[in-house]
Amino acid sequence: MANTKKMDYVLLGLLSHEPMTGYEIKKRLDTTLRFFWGASYGSIYPTLNQLEKEGKVIKEDASSNGREKISYSITEYGKDSLKEWLKKPVEKDELRYETLLKLFFGNETGMEGAKEHIERFEEKCKGELLILNMFAENLGQYLQDDTHKHYYLTVKFGIKTYESYLEWCHEAKEQIKEWEK
Amino acid sequence: MANTKKMDYVLLGLLSHEPMTGYEIKKRLDTTLRFFWGASYGSIYPTLNQLEKEGKVIKEDASSNGREKISYSITEYGKDSLKEWLKKPVEKDELRYETLLKLFFGNETGMEGAKEHIERFEEKCKGELLILNMFAENLGQYLQDDTHKHYYLTVKFGIKTYESYLEWCHEAKEQIKEWEK
DNA sequence: ATACAATATATCAGTTTGATATATTTGTCA
DNA sequence: TGACAAATATATCAAACTGATATATTGTAT
To answer: DSSP secondary structure string, chain A?
Structure first.
């Protein structure tokens, strides 16, 4: 079997929902999947070309007017490859939180710096939670569809975690106040 | 100012706590920081050498018996560089959860696959939570120290989030049962 | 008309991972 | 005591991925 990186499956997964251009894939990653996965153009376009050479996706010219546009759709072989990966156990779940890093090393700058980072984090979380709650509400009306059920579960995950982040922010600030007494 | 990547500050941060070898740095990342940050030898050793050339850390031969050992300690210049970074706002907090990815694309394999991934995730979270609670308990006795206070806050973050992950696992399984009726 | 935002593809240097190589010391079981 | 595995320790490299940038067209608002 050919080389397979994680990116392959992200693209195959998205194309298993519907045919898309590289640009549309990027947008979907930046909206729907942003809470648990990301990718850059520098990996999207080359991987799309590689998947086509392997016969896992099919290119189709979808240019209109003068706008160049290449639509990709998944093949049966691509679907088989995706299904195989989906059945395998997860290799790695990973958090990369710069906020936690700056907090952990924060003794160099004191509790004042820590408080600032926590507050900024809190604001960001509030924003994300607002978006996620909107997603969940909108999704409510599509829950007879299987694809949307899976989507719904991931949105619920996002809501749960951001709510717990906000709780932590509150408790951490209280704890710092306690220490400052 | 010279080139600066995130890895620079991770190493400077760890060395600001105490002098260490590359191997010890890796161990600390795999234990204490594993819940929010990771790094591989392939970035640790080269970065350590680069930081030495820049005068941010100092190399010291700490070989004993026949065992080669290089201990690194942070310089004042290195501390200044670290502090500067700590004051800057966070650029990126990122979750990369393969579990969520497989769940999101799971309509290809059906709810049975989703349930399996959720269950495996649940088991892993229970394990992590156990470790984190041990950390928190042990930390309790060192909380007069500033470094440990910052450490404590990050452990609390880990506990909060893993608890919410477990709640989500439970609710997601209930939801799936509901859908299966 | 003109400028700005959005759409669209593509590439590349720099960063990081994951695997592997190499070698020594320490612990453990028989 | 000897043998074997596990832990300690440094280092390198191909492959993967990011973040930035280049290029060009279309739609929108002023």
So the answer is: -----HHHHHHHHHHHHS-B-HHHHHHHHHHTSTTT----HHHHHHHHHHHHHTTSEEEEE--BTTB--EEEEE-HHHHHHHHHHHHSPP--EEEEEHHHHHHHTGGGT-HHHHHHHHHHHHHHHHHHHHHHHHHHHHHGGGTTSHHHHHHHHHHHHHHHHHHHHHHHHHHHHHHHHHHH-
